[in-house]
Amino acid sequence: MDRLKGKVAVVTGAAQGIGAAYAKGLASEGARVVVCDLSEPTEIVAQINGSGGEAMGIVADVTDDESLNRLVVEVEENFGPIEILVNNAAIFASIQFKPFTELSNEEWDAVMRVNARGPFQATKAVLPSMKKNGRGKVINIASGTFLRGAPMFCHYVASKGAVVGQTRSLARELGSSNVYVNCIMVGLTESEGVAASKQYDMARSATHNMRIIQRDMVPEDLLGTLYYLASEDSDFISGQCVNVDGGALSY
Questions:
Q1: What average pLDDT values come out for the chain (251 residues) when binned by 10 residues?
Q2: 246 φ, ψ to 5°?
Q3: How many CB atoms lie under 10 A from the CB of residue 232?
Q4: 0.90 exceeded by the pTM?
Q5: Which residues contact 124 (CB under 8 A, 6 or more apart)?
Q6: Strand 136-143 relative to strand 179-186: parallel, antiparallel, unpaired?
Q7: Distance between CA atoms of residues 185 and 176, nearest Å
Q8: Is residue 152, in this structure, part of any structural domain at all?
Q9: Which residues have a catalytic role annotated?
Q10: Which contiguous run of DSSP H or E holds residue 209?
Q11: Enclosing domain of residue 110
C-alpha cells in the first residue's frame, strides 16, 4: 500500500482514461500525485483526495516549454522535488483509421508533436527537479502496435516507435544521474475513449483472439507494472520496454 509513500509523481494526460487510472493508482501507493492535463483535472484530484490520497491538479501543455516549466515550479513549491514522471499524454482515441496515403502532413505533425515530442519536452523540464531529488523514474507510455505494426494507423505507430527510441537513448544518457527511464507498451485497453468508439470493435475482436488472456484489457491491468517501474523495486532496471497486453505478443 505504501511502496511510493511521500514520492512526488507527475502524470501527464491524467484528467481521464488510462492517465486517471495511473494517477489514482500511484496515490493509492502513497505518492503525492500531480494530475496534469490540457483540461482542468478537478474531478480526478477530488476523487484522490476524497479517498485519502494527496493530489493537486495543474493545467499544462506537454508541447509548450513555458507551460511545463511553470508546472515544475508549482509542484516544487507545493509538494517538493519530482521523483516520478509518467509520460502518458497522447493523441489516440480521436484518431480516425485511414490509409497512410490519405493522411495529411498536418495530421502527421499533430500526432508526432504530442506523442513523440511531448515526452521529450516533459522529461527535459522535469530532469532538474529529479536531480535535486537525487534520483528519478521516467515511465514512458508506448504501444504494442509498434511491435506488430498496425494498418491505417501509421502516424500513431510511428509516434510510439519514437517513444521506444527515446526510452533507450535517455536511459543511457541519464543513468549516471540516478534517473532511470523505462517504458510500458500498452495493449488495446478499454478506456472511455476506446469504449465509446465503434471503430475499435473490429480491433477488439482480433485482439481477443491473439491474447493468451482472452478478455478485455482495462486500465487497472497496467497498474502492477507501473508500480514496479515507479518504485525502488526496479532500481536496477533502465532502458527497458515492458509489453502489457495479455500475451497478444509473446516475444
A1: 93 96 98 97 97 97 98 98 98 88 96 98 98 97 89 93 98 98 87 59 66 83 97 98 85 57
A2: 70, 20
A3: 12
A4: yes
A5: none
A6: parallel
A7: 25
A8: yes
A9: 156
A10: helix 200-210
A11: 8-244
